[in-house]
Amino acid sequence: MSAFWCLVRRDLRLAYRRGGDSVNVVIFFLLTVTLFPFGVGPETAILMRIAPGVIWVVALLAAMLSLDRLFRGDFDDGSLDLMILGPLPLEMTVLAKCLAHWLTTGLPLVIASPLLAVLLAMDGEGFTTLIGTMLLGTPVLSLIGAIGAALTVSLRSGGVLISLLVLPLYIPVLIFGVGAVDAAVYGLAARPHILVLGAMLIVALPLCPWASAAALRLSVE
Amino acid sequence: MHRFASPTFFMRYSAAILPWAVRLTAALIAIGLYLALFVAPPDYQQGESVRIMFVHVPSAWMALFVYTGMAVASAMALIWKHPLSDIAARASAPIGACFTFMALVTGSLWGKPMWGTWWVWDARLTSMLVLLFLYLGYMALADAFDDPARGAKAAAILALVGFVNVPIIKFSVDWWNTLHQPASVVKLGGPAIHLSMLAPLLIMVAGFTSFYVAVLIMRMRTEIVVAKLRSLQMARVERRS
Amino acid sequence: MTEFFNMGGYAAFVWPALGLTALVMATLYIQSYTSLRARQAELDTLQSKKNNEAET
Question: In this complex, which chains have at least 3 CB pairs below 8 Å with chain B?
Fold first, then answer.
């Protein structure tokens, strides 16, 4: 187990040394959401209606843009080969890296989301649900994204391809994430949506690392 | 099983099957079209536009059937390392993508007179759209690798991940759709289907399946020939150097 | 006859739908066929070259 946390700490330290990553993700998040009022007009009623959807979609995109980083650094400098041969099962390695990725990407997004909800005039009812669903959903995004990152890590221009592979798989998370917040805003039951999101997280936790590990072994052959 | 696994054996028996598959396709589609256009009655609600159903529904079924076939072939390639499997999966993808595209466009053309707009975010059409992206992603991934064998294996993993997700996506899109469009549920094809419509529909489905088999065989043969070409060319380069 | 082509007023939808289906399927078939023939021809030329070189 300590090997697991060692790996998480290592990835966090690397991300911290690289500096800009988490900050860039949050800035992208803020900037892109800010574009929407320019696009659709500042009318509160419209912004309020689209707020949950916009925040979720942009969070999704922000998460996706950071996926290439997940394995590429280790692939380029050979650490990935060592990880595959190492004491920790590759699936656990992937899980550790996903956790670190979420801590540096997903968690900042979750923390930034209330600010954006205010910017888009989202109704107060939705705030806690937004944070809750993003807490459940962003790890799933990291996990599913890891599969895409693992499949493309050995390719030169993997970045754009990742989006094509991963976005269709993100759609269910998006649907239920936004569904929950919309339900909360309109005073309906958000619980079914949140339960489905939770179920997705529980299912993704074992399955995504498994698929990612298979893809990684393939990539370093 | 192993005898059927060798590409050489495949090349021989597929050469025999191919002309029959082509003839069967032509016959089935000709009969199906005749029945669909001249024998089947116009629909009570939708009039003559229901004729589109005879190409839309088979396309949609084939889109899903081919993806299932790709997933099965991918599983066989990854688990049993069957040599023909990843060739079959890669060859199937463009065919499935075409069927999906056809399903979307014919669905749109069928929907316009029924719903008044060219596109409606109806659960089934939306799921078809996502399926198209799954196909395109698969094709992009398989082509992105210099080594086609590696590309096929990576794409195989993607196909299985996508296949597991197809019911999840379908369920989510259904949910999303009922949330946003509670009232107007239009059932494409009407309530129950009469034999005079069912027969041409099933014949068209059979014809499309036979078409898939024929085109699949051609594309698999092409892949095997290309593999031979590549190894011959590499051998020549090695000998020269 | 014209009634058939008119498709009860839905002609603008039915015929393009059928036409597009035919077009896509025909294109797919023709592309697969020509590609197979081209690659097979390449292979034959390359193999006959190899045989000639082996003989010399």
Answer: A, C
For chain B, the domains span 15-39+50-181+193-240
Chains B, C: CB contacts within 8 A come to 91
Q: Which residues of C touch B102 (CB under 8 A)?
A: 20-21, 24-25
Cα–Cα distances (Å) from A84 to A94, A204, B6, in that order, read 10, 21, 32
Under an 8 A CB cutoff, do B137 and A165 touch? Answer: yes
Q: Which pLDDT band, with edges at 50, 70 and 90, does B47 fall under?
A: confident
Taking CB atoms and an 8 Å cut-off, how many pairs form between chains A and B? 73
Strand-pair partners of B47: B43
| C18 shares contact with chain B (CB less than 8 Å) | yes
pTM of this structure: 0.89
Q: Which residues of A touch B148 (CB under 8 A)?
A: none
Indicate contact of A with B: 3+ CB pairs under 8 A.
Answer: yes
Domain ranges of chain A: 2-219
Q: Quick one: average pLDDT of B93-120? A: 89
d(CA B22, CA B77): 27
Contact between chain A and chain C (3 or more Cβ pairs less than 8 Å apart): no
Whether the predicted pLDDT of B181 surpasses 80? no
- Residue type, position A69, single letter: R
pLDDT value for B185: 42
Other Cβ atoms closer than 10 A to A99? 20
B157 to chain A: which residues are within 8 Å by CB? 147, 151, 211, 214-215, 218
Judged by CB atoms closer than 8 Å, whether chains meet at B150 and A215 is answered as no
Q: Quickly list DSSP for C28-46.
A: HHHHHHHHHHHHHHHHHHH
In angstroms, what separates the C-alpha of B20 from chain C's closest C-alpha? 15
The whole-angstrom separation of Cα B193 and Cα B71 is 31
How far is residue B12's CA from residue A168's CA, in Å, rounded to a whole number? 39
pLDDT tens digits for C33-49? 999 999 999 999 988 88
Q: Confidence class of residue A196 from pLDDT cuts 50, 70 and 90?
A: very high
Q: In whole angstroms, give the CA distance from residue B105 to residue B125.
A: 10
Return the SS3 of B43: strand
Task: Give the whole-number percent of chain C exceeding pLDDT 90.
Answer: 50
Phi-psi bin for C7: left (phi > 0), alpha (psi -120 to 50), beta? left
Average pLDDT, rounded, for chain A: 91
